[in-house]
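Narrative of activities, Objective 1.

The group set out to show that a structural description can be obtained from nothing but a protein's sequence at a throughput compatible with the screening campaign. Below is one input-output pair from the validation batch, recorded exactly as produced.
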Amino acid sequence: MKKNLFFVIVWAAVLAPLGLRAQAVTWSEHVAPIVFQHCTSCHRPGEIGPFPLTNYSEAQNWANMMQYVTEIRYMPPWKPDSKFGAKYLRENYLSDNEIATIKAWVEGGAPEGDPNLAPPTPVFPSGSQIGTPDLVLNFAKTHIHPGTNYDEYRYFVLPTGLTQAKDLVALEMRPGNKRVVHHALIWADTTGTAAALDAQTPEYGYIPSQGGGIGQTKFTAQLPGYVPGARPNVFTNGMAQRLPAHSDLVVQIHYAPTSSDEPDSSSFNLFFADAPATRYVNSYIMLPTNLVNGPFTMPANSIKEFHGTFKLPFDVSLLGIAPHCHKLGRNWRVFAVTPANDTIPLIHIEDWDFNWQGAYNFKKLQKLPKNTVIHAYATYDNTSNNPLNPNNPPKFVTWGESTNDEMYYLPLYWLPYQTGDENLNLEDVATGTTQAFHFSQTRLYPVAPNPVKGSAKIGFTLGDMGAVSLQVWNLNGQLVQTLLQAQQTLAGEHIVEWDAQNLPSGLYCIMLRTEDGGMQTQKVVVP
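Output recorded for this entry:
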């Protein structure tokens, strides 16, 4: 008896640090909540994940792979070092306990458990992830990315048609072909330079060599870009970026290598402030001109760390940061040193991955006093020991927009400092502002068509993730149909197909209920 008790105590001691109970770890009760929160947004039909993870059967098929990629922290693809000190919006890394839970589940045979204990599969936005745009810009033509097994960087120019300047609070790219759209950088151009370059080429858009050097370093008004799997950022607290009248949207899209021709016709959703912005977000880009140990050159078979600096001319509130380099990049380490010699961590990416680059917005504005110096270190490995080196054998490499070239490119998004900035909670859209953005609120839209004969679309937007019920009632107060029942649903815009073909003629009420007790209705006629 004492011997058995000893083993029980030892086993409990092993499990306790992992946060696991001495019971079977199941998909339904323990693993599904982790996967649905961190993985399913990309691992679902039509998205970039190579296989879906929307139910137990799918997860069981990939259980061993899930354990491996989470243990080595390859997945989910959140690159900033969580221990460096900086905190960002929508962080997506697994805790030690979550990784241990997945491991225990796999090693225990990956059991399903009681299906009734599983959370509902989240419903994801079917259109825009953040609501109804104020302006949609589309490709004028379909671009064919050639199947030559080479990358392609191509610039496209989309006239905004704006006759007056607008306060832009969000920009959302909807890639036309997710198989080949790797990422995109976006600027506003008021000079017409990009449009003139595009007009000189017979095909739609132009590549950097056709632009005569007019590229990333020439367009200074950088706007939010696109990377797969990332939800677009929405400026709050009266913040916006100024989109000038008569400006063009200039988009540089990186297309991944493919063996067959792939068409792409992407679109861009623009969201404007409902009330005039009170503050404008600016950007500054650290480039090789900021280096203290340049020039930015990498001889073959060399490993080099470059150090750039930027001294702030006035008090700044730093909003976000977006390090960018290519396949020779190994790591980034960025911090600020104030005049009082305090060190403020900004970002550390220990294992740079060209496939998972992004922009990172801080949870709270980072106050940087005047004369603070930003230090940005980036290391590059131009040796044959780098398995990602695009040149075999290694070659001399310097600045360029091709994947075979390299970049030291660090956008910083900032505002002039105002008293109290460091206390703003950017996760709470209601903090410090009376501005109500129509796309960050929960709203049930009118049914279309109305009257409805047969099928119709019911659209709604959620401001926050939560359980949603969508029902059809008649005017006698009787429940006719339940379209969604306490369905866990992500924030954003959703469209539900409704078949009213078998309903008798009359007036009906569509009712949207949310878990916070909110209720909205729309009337619809069935003739």
